[in-house]
Amino acid sequence: MLFAEHSQKPQSLEGSPPKSIDFFMTSERYNPREAEGKWQKKWAERNTFQTDNADPRPKYYVLEMFPYPSGRIHMGHVRNYAMGDVVARYKRARGFNVLHPMGWDAFGMPAENAAMQNKSHPAKWTYDNIATMRGQLKSMGLSLDWSREIATCDPTYYKHQQRLFLDFLKAGLVTRKKSKVNWDPVDQTVLANEQVIDGRGWRSGAIIEQRELTQWFLKITDFAQDLTDSLDDLQRWPEKVRLMQKNWIGRSEGLRVRFALEKNAIAKDSTIEVYTTRPDTLFGAKFLALSADNPLAIEAGKTDPKIQAFIEECRRMGTSVATLETAEKKGVDTGLRVQHPFDPAWQIPVWIANFVLMDYGTGAIFGCPAHDQRDLDFARAYHLGATPVVCPAGQNAAEFEIGATAYDGEGTMINSYFLDGMEIPAAKEEVTRRLESTMIDGKPQGERQVNFKLRDWGISRQRYWGCPIPVIHCDDCGTLPVPVADLPVTLPEDVTFDKPGNPLDHHPTWKNVNCPQCSKAARRETDTMDTFVDSSWYYARFTDPHSSDHPTTKAADHWLPVDQYIGGIEHAILHLLYSRFFARAMKATGHLNVKEPFAGLFTQGMVVHETYRGSDGTWRTPGEIRIDSTPEGRKAFSLSDGSTIEIGAIEKMSKSKRNTVDPDEIIGGYGADTARWFMLSDSPPDRDVIWSEEGVQGASRYVQQIWRLVHEMRELSEGVAMPSGSLDERATAVRKIVHGHLMKVEEHIERLRFNTAIAEIRKMTNALSATIAAITSPDQINSDLRQAYREALDVMIQMFAPMMPHLAEECWAAAGHENLVSEAAWPQLDRALAADDRIVIPVQVNGKKRAELEIEHDADAARVEAEALKLEAVARELNGRTPKKVIIVPKRIVNVVV
RNA sequence: GCCCCUAUGGCGGAACUGGUAGACGCGUCCGACUCAAAAUCGGAUUCCGCAAGGAGUGCUGGUUCGAUUCCGGCUAGGGGCACCA
């Protein structure tokens, strides 16, 4: 026997009083504090959740977004990992070889900030936090393979990341270029576009400045087309995330048009190129506008002080992304003129405008005020006119005028020479075709072009606590990769954070090295990688986390893609797009053979909580108040002085609003199972869940309910085998309850509908309790019924085991099993039992329900109709009239139409 | 400004491809047990109405034998992008 016999010694049935169910009841309550630690230890001893890569069963890889070791886990983690654990445990029971690993996204700014404050080392802070959080996760009873644990700050991890960087460099997927970057003045580092939110740093919240720096870039734009196209194949991703990525990548098809410049003293080129998605509106052109950073604009500024002043004004404005949002449309006429492509006599003025971006398209546009709001605003400010060239259906072309709003809808071409009368798509095609075949300056005047909003991913960060970029700068040999044999380039341990900026930059012995090529004095790259690089490939590393020679091995090909990935919607763009890029880049460099890392994605909602505010306006924690529920509503009072507390809005748990709940306290008080159960039960997993004390108490009550029910059923089924052959009516009814609900629970879990899966389990336990309550005397309990309860007991425990694993083990042992329910195979569903042979269907008259009809499930339409019409309530409604039509939807409904 | 999502009892929510609206839970009320309380158990709980019955899924129009579900218009809340030509 594996375990000491369970202490519960249920009473014998003999001599028990009839009627009440009290005689079944155990006097002991289930004690999660004792049980949970015991089973966690047992799982660890038996390596229950360790996964063997060589296991021949079909694989299933379930992964939750790994945490940043910030200090302690929060309720969001509990929700995320509870969901993943249900999937992992369920799939394991269903016979899959499940990979369910955990690790730490361990590089990042907070460790440096803590180091500055506490004068300790970021590594110590990080590893201390990891130790704390690992303990907390273990107390949740997650079925994780801890032998695969990784931390991205560990040289055994980032060594391989440096190797990937060098391979990407060799493959041309890395560039170093001078560019305008988003500079976070608080964190003193660069941020990627994706990390700037509403003009502020995603972490610091500081207003972002624009600076020009030399940076390392990963060429995510090389895959822009495939990254957008492949979204269509990600069937098991939320539509919302795919759409957000699609918009972010921002593919557009248009035409690059060359306008011939009139002779002038400024321009070196004889044409100006613009990019447009609306070549159909070419005859509505009123001006060309250059970006202030356009080389031609800069050239023009050199000879004209007025233009120079305007460019400088734009630069000042451009230093803050936030100011762009409110900026008026402004510009200056360069005096340059271009020819209209289809009318050499038509001169168009060339302006410099503050709303034209240099890094999209060609840094120049043609303005069609009638059909583009920005162009219209600009044209109104400088009286450039707005001739409509597209007329909406139903409008008189001669009278159609543009007011304050540009018209960007469909319509017919007007005022447009040879395009007149065409619809927009035909006009686009016609202009494109004509300009493609006209040559100017030895090139076609128009060329089809696809543009993307997506920019290359700048990964240089001027920080210490990150993965060093493995590159050496030599004055003679240039920028050289660190030889692979010298990897990892480890971080120096003796650093100080007393000066602003990058500590690596102030560390002479680390920074100064010899050139790997010429051996002369050279300098290490002191930038480290954006921490999003660390999390862009960890899912692959988990498949063979201790391989020391290579980032990945054949195991990655076996396990990837991740079958089910679960995490927050906040990563819809950043992390998920970078990971998709990384998989492609790793495929291109031979490290992977898939390009999509996550076949299934699920984005969970947040954990939210009521807020509480005292009369003095200060926030109060849930622990500082007491709530009274009355028919008039809920009222809150201060525990310390009894004063009235205002119950505020339900908001995301945050330290500032003081509405957080500590997972440790919940797990310590109610047990992990109760926390997991409530977290999964109360809301659909993709929506926010409101954490409430009452809800947790309900879950806790249910744990005890199950404990009692298990003992009742154990009593009833003592010493009998599982059902075989057909049983009597009473017993079959019990079996039908079990299999009917088993089928539904399976469906709900497969679709990740944890809340409805839990409702189904509760329905089943309610129904089983009712059958037991209906037993009025012991002589009603025959061998058939005992067998049915024997099965019901096991199946019930297995059904809630993925959500409440500790309680399930305790019950499983109480039911007399010597193995672990975590290692047991999922019960075999009997579909015949799951289906009902008599069903109740509603009967409507003229679409209103008037009666119910109970009938065999396989009754044919004629019989259903005959029986329905016989019903008294139906006859009464008909009142002698003959039905015009009777609609019968098998097993669903009868509708009698009069 | 553009794009997307959501709207169901006092509350969280359920209702597979159009087919009994309100499952399951929370809260509340009534009852049992108790000297009492807690815990536990049983019952009620969309609204109006004593009842028969009627109304009802944000508002509004449509398709249909039948609409929470599909289509059009609107309102409110939430999210994403944001001078991307």
In short:
This protein has 898 residues and is of the alpha+beta class. The model is unreliable at 1-27 and 319-324 (pLDDT under 50).
Walk me through what this model shows.
By secondary structure, the protein is an alpha+beta fold. Helices cover 35% and strands 21% of the residues. Strands 30, 31, 32, 33, 34 and 35 form a 6-stranded mixed sheet that branches. Helix 8 (295-303) crosses helix 9 (305-318). It binds one RNA strand of 85 nucleotides through helix 7, strand 11, strand 15, helix 11 and strand 35.
Task: Describe how the helices and strands are arranged.
Elements: H1 32-45, E1 59-64, H2 75-93, E2 97-99, E3 103-104, H3 109-118, H4 122-139, E4 150-151, H5 155-170, E5 174-184, E6 189-191, E7 196-197, E8 200-201, E9 209-218, H6 224-229, H7 239-249, E10 252-260, E11 271-276, E12 287-290, H8 295-303, H9 305-318, H10 321-326, E13 331-340, E14 343-353, E15 364-367, H11 373-382, E16 390-391, E17 412-413, H12 424-436, E18 439-440, E19 443-444, E20 446-451, E21 457-458, E22 460-461, E23 471-474, E24 478-481, H13 508-511, E25 512-514, E26 521-524, E27 528-529, H14 531-534, H15 538-541, H16 554-559, E28 564-568, H17 574-588, E29 601-604, E30 607-613, E31 619-620, E32 625-630, E33 633-638, E34 644-652, H18 663-670, H19 672-681, E35 689-690, H20 693-717, H21 729-750, H22 754-773, H23 783-800, H24 805-814, H25 831-834, E36 838-845, E37 848-856, H26 861-870, H27 872-878, E38 885-889, E39 893-897
Parallel strand pairs: 1-2, 1-28, 3-4, 12-14, 28-29, 30-35, 36-39
Antiparallel strand pairs: 5-6, 5-9, 7-8, 9-21, 10-11, 10-20, 12-15, 13-14, 16-17, 18-19, 22-27, 23-24, 23-26, 25-26, 30-31, 30-34, 32-33, 33-34, 36-37, 38-39
The structure holds one RNA strand of 85 nucleotides.
